[in-house]
Design a protein that fits this description.
Helix 1 packs antiparallel against helix 11 and helix 9 packs across helix 10. About 60% of the residues lie in helices and about 10% in strands. A five-stranded antiparallel β-sheet has the order 3-4-5-7-6. The chain has a two-stranded antiparallel ribbon with strand order 1-2. It is α+β, with helices and mostly antiparallel strands.
Length: about 575
Amino acid sequence: MSPARSNQNILYEPDERCPPLLALGVAAQGITFVLAPTVLIVAITVLATGQDQQFMSWAVFAALIITGAATALQAARIGRLGGSHLLITTVTPNFIAVSVLAMEEGGPALLASLVVLCSLFYLALSAWLPRLRRIITPVVSGTVLMLIAAMVLPIAFDRIKEVPEGATLAAGPCVAAVTLVVTTMLMLRAPRVWRPWSLLIGIAAGCLTAVPFGLYDFGHLIASPWVGIPDSRFPGLDLTPTAGFWGLLPMFLIVGVVQVIKSIGDSMVAQQVSRRRPRATDFRLIQGSIYANGVGILLSGLAGTPPTTSYSSLTVSLINLTGVAARSVGYTVGGLLVVLAFFPKFTGLLLIIPSPVMASFLVIALAMLFVEGIQTLARTGLDPQRAIVAGLAFSTGLGMQHLNIFKDLVGSPWDMLLGNGITVGTATAIALTAFLEWTSPRRRRLEVRLDIADLPRIDAFLQKVAARMGWEAAATGRLRSAGEETLASLLQPGEDFPQGERPRLIVAARPKAEAVELEFLAVFDEENLEDRLAYLNEQTETFDEKELSFRLLRHYASSVRHQKYHGLDIVTVRVNR
């Protein structure tokens, strides 16, 4: 295991005190990253369904407040709520496709009801993460991210054609092209310090190009007050589900699953980029971050606006640009967003952005989402089996979206459910992943106490595993030693448990090709094994009884991974033959 690299660019870590003026300056830069996506995605979703300007004003107002509250929650640590890191939150494009379907089917009330139910499902998933980790894999989540991008892309291109009456036919394509070209060129070739601003500069270029084409309508901006609260357009909840409701609910739940997986990655990235010396991922903070996202989705549903989510890409750009990862910046960003919501004239400037400019913004966002799906797929390695799962799920979902073969075979709401590409693609990916899991070599399991007295039972268990695989004496010895040292590493000197209250320790062994993967599941102390193992590389070779087992474990195992959840820790050790 190689030594952890030090990131000297970090001036302030999450828990370090940052000067208030510096925090305010960094937060002001963060606001520029958040405002455009928040307002534009809300506008795209609302306008695509023909809602009026009053509802648009309300949706933007509520989205800014909810985004601010969610960003502040991400920085907080209130019990199990909050990720305790700076993590920028904004409205997500992942819900655009299903939100448009919901608004077309039953208006804002149906959308609000579905988002509220999705948020409750989202919160439940965060508690079930340890149990779902083998089915909701990176292959599943990566495939669904690519499907979402493919499903929403037609909406983006439809927006290119939306221009005022009397405008030339070339207006939309020209404005969209300028926005797309300027943004892309800056992303590819601009100096490093300017790249985080590429999208905003591209939008500005597109807006300037739209002026001679006459694509602006300043009526709403002139009528907007400088300070005020828009008329409440809270849609309420539809408590009498229709056939359309039951057809759309699985789609929202599927996108919720994808959002959970994406939130895990966002929180992991935030933890890694916020430290001078990277630490092993703390999954308790990931669960807290997911809870914060779930609260944001719940508030979005209650307000009748498109859901929010955290964005690691915006967070990484802000931290790399400023070197400040202090949690106080998250509180400041949240506060500024709430304040800006009460200035309709300011947000009105973003609402009059021409539709072709919004379309180019959405195309870029979807391109990044598609690439994120590919990166998620590749994160665990695409062997032939995973490649078949991803390829078949994506092609099935995309094909079903373009040609619903069930439309004339089944009635409502099943035709809507089975004809949706996201639903079919996700179901295919989950079913194939479950098939691979269930047909893999059966895991052997032993349940003992977290006690050195139970070591003989663990040792006998590992000997049986090695014997069934036909391992020779040397490989069997490494496997037994790895099990012994893992237990010893988790039972550090001085760690006492009351009599009869020792945690359970579940040892699971799964044969792999020329290897065995061991899982130790229990409740441990606050120390993370990966941090300890990485730290050993940076120390002088002096004897320390507390570190001896860690050194031996690193010697016997080819890899060690430690995932910490609330109420459960999972230590995975791989031993090669």
